[in-house]
Amino acid sequence: MKFQKYLLFLVITALAVLLAACSTDTKGNEIEDEKPKGQETPKTTNEDSTLEGSVVIDGSGTVYPLMARVAEEYMLTEQENVSVEVSRAGTSAGFKKFLIENGTDFNDASRNIKDEETAEADSLGIEVKELKVALDGLTFVINKDNDWANEMTPEQLISIFKADSGIEKWSDINSEWPDEAINPMGPNENHGTYEFFYENILNKEDLVSSVSLQQDYSTLVSLVSEDKNGIAFFGFGYYVNNKDKLNAVHVDFGSGPVEPSLDTISEDGDYANFTRPVFTYLNVNFAKEKPQVLDYAIYAVENFNKFSGESGFAPISDAEAKENLDFLNNLK
Predict the structure, then answer these.
(1) At the N or C end, where does the chain have fewer CB atoms within 10 A?
(2) Compositional bias of type Basic and acidic residues: which residue ranges (predicted)?
(3) Fold annotation for 136-275
(4) Nearest Cα to 210, choosing from 183, 234, 188, 191?
(5) Spans of all domains in the chain
(6) 51-135+277-329 and 136-275 agree in CATH topology
(7) What CATH number belongs to 51-135+277-329?
């Protein structure tokens, strides 16, 4: 008997709890009672998930593979309603699209912004933020059938591209090499890689008149792969993705030949003399006005190091990445 009374007590108690938790509206529909303060159900709506619009990026062809990879991942896994458009007009050409009214949101660059470009930004009232993206190794590539010039010094490489060096044939560098004309090539003036090479490697001395300068890196890959006497320079990423077509020159900086690689490309490593940082420049005004631009900037900075290796770049330090991220988070 006592047991039956106990069961009845449990049933009555359960019904009381259920009735206390619910009430009905004027139409007889069951509604939940208001929960005590501090116990509200957490909102499941993520404001970021509602982002829409576009993010427009142009600039460096060198940085393009990394930025395009990050953009692809962002659209697939983060914000499917945001369109991130990545183009590659070249660093200098990109700045012309960036530093205008209603210009691009980002400009990728394989060199630092110039004083005159900063002045132009100031005159337009555009706040620009430089974001260091990764490290690149300037790489000299030769034809697969070229079995004599696999190792050279920086001075020998520079002499091939320098106007007054007197170097025209391979035999001018080494008497044991073929007595055939060298065909030097590189990216044209629209590219930061050209400017880096001209300003930092050639020290602003004239290039040899026979140099073939191209807008598209894919064209340079094709030209060298088809020319036994061809030699070109560009970013490491374009070499590493075309190893089946090209060989990279190992550079002897004084302690033996160094192959450009993710292990040697570093600002204080074995390939330091030919290592350079690459950047993207953010229009801060747009980041403040357009939520999708700031959201993408934060995602990109958080993930550049993750995708740098597969795109042919060495990562920047965690401290540098954090500094960039702190700046962006403060714009929220």
Answers:
(1) N
(2) 28-40
(3) D-Maltodextrin-Binding Protein; domain 2 (3.40.190)
(4) 183
(5) 51-135+277-329, 136-275
(6) yes
(7) 3.40.190.10
CA-based torsion, 215, 182, 245, 207: positive or negative? negative
Q: How far apart are CA 7 and CA 329, in angstroms?
A: 58
pLDDT by residue (tens digit) across 25-77? 433 443 333 333 333 333 333 344 589 999 999 999 999 999 999 999 999 99
> Which residue type occupies 238?
Y
- Per DSSP, what are the bridge partners of residue 52? none
Return the amino acid letter for 67.
Answer: M
